[in-house]
Write a structure and sequence with these properties.
The structure holds two protein chains of two kinds. By secondary structure, chain A is of the alpha+beta class. Chain A has two domains: about 35 residues; about 100 residues, Rieske Iron-sulfur Protein (3-layer Sandwich), CATH 2.102.10. Helices cover about 20% and strands about 30% of the residues of chain A. Chain B is mainly alpha-helical. Chain B has a domain of about 240 residues: Up-down Bundle (Cytochrome Bc1 Complex, Chain C). Chain B has 15 helices and four strands. In chain B, the strands form two sheets. In chain B, strands 1-2 form a two-stranded antiparallel sheet. In chain B, strand 3 and strand 4 form a beta hairpin. Chain B is globular and about 65 Å long. The chains are: A alpha+beta, B mainly alpha. At the A-B interface, loops of A face helix 7, helix 8 and helix 11 of B.
Chain lengths: ~160, ~350
């Protein structure tokens, strides 16, 4: 069937074609740029493996730092000798916390946040308790893992 | 070739008459508040100092996290005048931001943002935001404990915004944590992206001011004492002030070079009583006042959302202030302007003292 009158003029058609081309071209460029500029994200580890000797013998009521991925992990021995591991990062604004042995509390100096020795947020701005990890000892290995994660070490 | 020959060489090729006419026709009104006109010029002059000192510092600074801290120590200890130029860049930055805040708050209270100058105000507020980002990114260059903690908090704070928060946070950090990747990114922002945007925006800001002419506060419209030619009277006054400001920065830079903290260690706790730069203190103090939980909701998120709205309102204020757009006095917005200024000043002081 032949159409006598076209619904679009030649000018509209060409303008649309050109604008469409321009939009497609620019969005392609912007997409590629953003894709490159946005980093490939790493992931927080599910578990880390440490050396038992380095941590188990620390004095009671003290902490020893370890690397939890790029963040601070704290190995913590309470006064009664029980061992814990936790993420040493304040739940407020991600500053590293420190342990105050005299008061048996964790303290974040950035905005004056306090946590008790069980990690509960007790004063200042922190909205959530500190994150505690599971610990397991396998021979020489001290395995610190996220709560509820099943760790399967590769058999060496 | 003497000067006259050069001049006629140029004039044969280019018509500078319109430009000359423009300079001659540019007048600045005299009234009770005309002193605030000079703050913009001072800010621009300080920007020039920042550009020049920044360029020479970038000849020596190494933006790699393992050597960044040491390269700054080398700049201030081993290079000729290195300590001076780093100090000048530091104090220039402090004074730039101070001047920008004075410029912004005076514009706010005198309501120079009103119709038809909305875009002058908006480009100005964006420039203020960019300058603060300049401060934060330049500050991380030190790669010391304080800078590290400050950038963690600042980027983490943005991460609390709903929906887009995490996207911005990871984009700024170049990963999930503040690492060496963040340093290279912030270096790129600091030396290429932000200066380019600044140049463009300052250009637009100045052109718009020329286009609209300088704003006269509503209360002074009938109290104008006269008009001074910009060229040369006002320009000379500008130059005098710039010279004084230059004297001040150079003196402060020479007398009190800023300290460099211990190299950043991602696993070390931040130093006791850590505080951000003074222009973040009002935000810092606001965050401190908010409890962790408000009626079962995340207090931080509420704080960040409220702050974002307050900033958005600040940027868009010319569109809300309908009365002064009509040329009527609007007391409400004077109070809002005073409130913003007081909030900033008081919170900064509390931040300093606590």
């Amino acid at each position: 069937m032949k159409i006598l009158y076209s619904l679009v003029t030649r000018r509209t058609f060409l303008n649309t074609l050109f604008c469409g081309w321009l939009i497609a071209f620019l969005s392609g460029c912007v997409y590629a740029l953003l894709k490159f500029a946005f980093p490939t994200l790493g992931k927080e580890p599910d578990f880390v493996v440490l050396n038992v000797k380095d941590f188990l013998d620390i004095p009671p009521n003290s902490v020893k730092p370890f690397a939890w991925g790029g963040k601070l992990g704290l190995f913590f021995k309470k006064e009664d000798g029980s061992n814990y591991a936790l993420k040493g990062v304040c739940t407020h604004m991600e500053c590293n916390v420190m342990y105050k042995p005299e008061e048996k509390k964790f303290y974040c100096p950035c905005h004056k946040g306090w946590f008790d020795e069980n990690g509960k947020n007790i004063a200042g701005p922190p909205p959530k308790p500190l994150e505690f990890f599971d610990i397991k000892i396998e021979g020489e290995k001290l395995i610190v893992s996220k709560k509820g994660i099943k760790v399967e070490l590769p058999k060496a | 070739m003497n000067c006259r020959k050069l001049k006629s060489w140029f004039e044969e090729r280019y018509d500078i008459e319109p430009f000359r006419r423009f300079l001659k026709s540019k007048f600045v009104p005299e009234h009770k508040y005309d002193i605030w006109y000079y703050t913009g010029g001072i800010a621009m002059f300080l920007f020039v100092i920042q550009f020049v000192t920044g360029i020479v510092l970038s000849f020596y600074y190494v933006p790699f996290h393992e050597v960044a801290h040491k390269s700054i120590i080398d700049i201030v200890t081993k290079l000729n005048m290195g300590w001076f130029f780093r100090s000048l860049h530091h104090w220039g930055a402090q004074l730039s931001i101070l001047t920008l805040f004075v410029h912004a708050f005076s514009t706010l209270i005198l309501k120079s943002y009103r119709k038809p100058r909305e875009l002058v105000w908006i480009t100005g507020t964006i420039l203020l935001g960019i300058s603060i980002f300049f401060g934060l990114s330049g500050y991380l260059m030190l790669w010391d404990e304080r800078a590290f903690a400050a950038v963690r908090v600042a980027t983490g704070g943005v991460g609390n915004l709903p929906i887009i928060g995490n996207f911005i946070k990871f984009f700024l950090r170049g990963g999930i944590d503040v690492t060496g990747e963040t340093l290279t990114r912030f270096y790129a922002f600091h030396v290429s992206l932000l200066p380019l945007i600044t140049l463009v925006l300052v250009g637009i800001h100045l052109l718009l001011v020329q286009y609209h002419g300088i704003s006269v506060p509503l209360s002074q419209e009938n109290e104008i004492r006269g008009y001074k030619p910009f060229f040369p009277n006002v320009l000379y006054k500008d130059l005098m002030l710039w010279l004084m400001v230059f004297g001040i920065v150079v003196t402060v830079a020479a007398l009190s070079p800023p300290e460099i903290g211990k190299k950043a260690d991602p696993l070390a706790p931040p130093p006791e009583n850590i505080k951000p730069e003074w222009y973040f203190l009002f935000l810092f103090q606001t965050l401190k006042f908010f409890p962790g939980e408000i009626m079962g909701l995340n207090g931080e998120m509420i704080a960040i959302i409220l702050i974002s709205f307050a900033i958005l309102f600040f940027v868009l204020i010319p569109f809300f202030d309908k009365k002064s757009n009509r040329g009527e006095r609007s007391t409400l917005f004077t109070w809002i302007g005073v409130l913003y200024t007081l909030y900033f000043v008081i919170m900064t002081i509390i931040g300093f003292l606590s």
